[in-house]
Specification:
2,3-Dihydroxybiphenyl 1,2-Dioxygenase, domain 1, 160 residues
Length: 160
Amino acid sequence: MSPLKRLGLGISWLWITAGFAADFTIGDVNHIGLTVTDLEASQRFFVDVLGFEPAGGDPEYPALFVANNDIMVTLWRATDPQSAIAFDRKQNVGLHHLAFNLESFAALDALYAVLRMEPDVVIEFSPELLSGGPARHMMIREPSGNRLEFIHIPPRDRAQ
């Protein structure tokens, strides 16, 4: 059992242990980094298909960055793309998938129609109910093989 005691204080937490107290709140996700085998193909997918904007890069690494109004995605090229080992979500520890919210079921269906035409995208499953609904989601692999989920969760009925 941890020697830490956690006290809920609204949305922040106060941790107390051995006479030390720390009050902090974890905010939104700042960015996510994905290792890719093809920097240009992955950047093209995020920019041309998903509507992100180029946001710089680091040629020394090498890396390219893309962002929208909500998140930055850093795309880091594997050291040797030819020998890079594809992630196995059932065997490896690491990022299982990255999920993006969509504003409506219509937007989810429209994105699915676009993704179906992308030759470098693998659609794992088309939009379907998540655990019986009411949310719907789909899962794909972007050009370098990273799993991306797109989901719409409708607002709860305020009458309930």
